Amino acid sequence: MKVNVIGQVPKEFVDSEIHAILQENPARAIKEITFERLDGDECKESYELTTVPFERIRRITGYLVGTMDRWNDAKRAEEHDRVKHSL
C-alpha cells in the first residue's frame, strides 16, 4: 500500500482512516491512499482499492461450474453431447 501525505497530517488520523476503510471493504486492499491537509483542520483524502477477481460461472449439465478442468471423461462426453440452445 502506498500512502501519500501532503502537509502535516497526524499519524493517528492516517492510521484510523486506513483502518476504517479496510473495515468497510473487508475483501479488498488499498492500492494507494492520499491525505492532503487543507485550511484549518480539514483534510482531503482519496484512495484506490484493489479489484475483486471475477470468475464467470455457468450452468452446464445441471452443475454450476467455472471451468471443466477437473471433470472426468464421462462428464466431458456428456457436455460434448448436450443440445446447445441459442437465443
Automatic annotation (TrEMBL):
Any Pfam family: NRDD
A GO biological process held by the record: DNA replication
Domain of life of the source: Bacteria
GO molecular function: ribonucleoside-triphosphate reductase (thioredoxin) activity
InterPro entries reported for this sequence: NrdD (IPR012833)
Name by which UniProt lists this protein: Uncharacterized protein
Species of the source: Candidatus Ventrousia excrementavium
Lineage: Bacteria, Bacillati, Bacillota, Clostridia, Eubacteriales
